[in-house]
Amino acid sequence: VALVKKKNKVDDYFCGGALISRLYVLTASHCIERENASNIRVALGAHDSDNGPEPVAVSKFIMHPKYYRRTYLNDIALVKLQEPATLSETVRVICLPTSPVFTSPNDTAVVAGWGWNRYQQGKSYKQLQELELPILSPPTCVSKYGGVIQETNLCAGGLKDKTHAP
């Protein structure tokens, strides 16, 4: 899933998300906090921004009520689609665990997104990016990224020249 807005009359894929039901996409609050739902569309099943699906309209955003911009605490939000998604071979609702899943520093996480490409003047990548990162312990996370880490944070990263997800 890609969040899309028009930039110079061209669709700009600027953030990712996951379809959690036919009507809702899970994304990050920092992606939508300065946006208006009427200006954003969602490309379901998107993998390549130059050859992506026709984006669908959004009816509203629901940001976590305790989202804190400075530390990204509770950086989670829902995007409600105007119409239920049409499911297909390339558009599916993700499987979510039925009970809490705990991770340990020995685990790895796969992150996906459109990223920020510093080699292209900060533009997003044209293809959806994927990266496997190690889960970091809270003390390692604090020493690596600084700031206050909450028990609800999942911290991953630590690879040179790779992205991270505190």
TrEMBL record:
Name of protein: Vitamin K-dependent protein C
GO biological process: proteolysis
Annotated family: Belongs to the peptidase S1 family. CLIP subfamily.
PROSITE patterns tied to this protein: TRYPSIN_DOM, TRYPSIN_HIS
Taxonomic source organism: Trichonephila clavata
Gene: Proc
Span of domain Peptidase S1: 1-166
Keywords, ordered alphabetically: Disulfide bond, Glycoprotein, Signal
GO molecular function terms listed in the Swiss-Prot or TrEMBL record: serine-type endopeptidase activity
